[in-house]
Amino acid sequence: MMLLDVKLLVDEEEILLNEFVKKILGGMISGAVESLRDVTEEWKDVRIEITR
Q1: Which of 1, 7, 11, 29 is deepest in the core (most CB within 10 A)?
Q2: Range of the domain at 32
Q3: What is the pLDDT of residues 4-50, one digit of tens each?
Q4: How many domains does the chain have?
């Protein structure tokens, strides 16, 4: 498993994450992204923006 740097920002403020949450979020997001047809295995950076 590759080492992922995971950050969460809410309203421009970084939220501290423990290692468990980093692994869960990183695994879920990278797994979903890697399953997309147009994404290569060599991706370097993923950014998701959610607005309400």
Answers
A1: 29
A2: 1-52
A3: 999 999 999 999 999 999 999 999 999 999 999 999 988 999 999 99
A4: 1
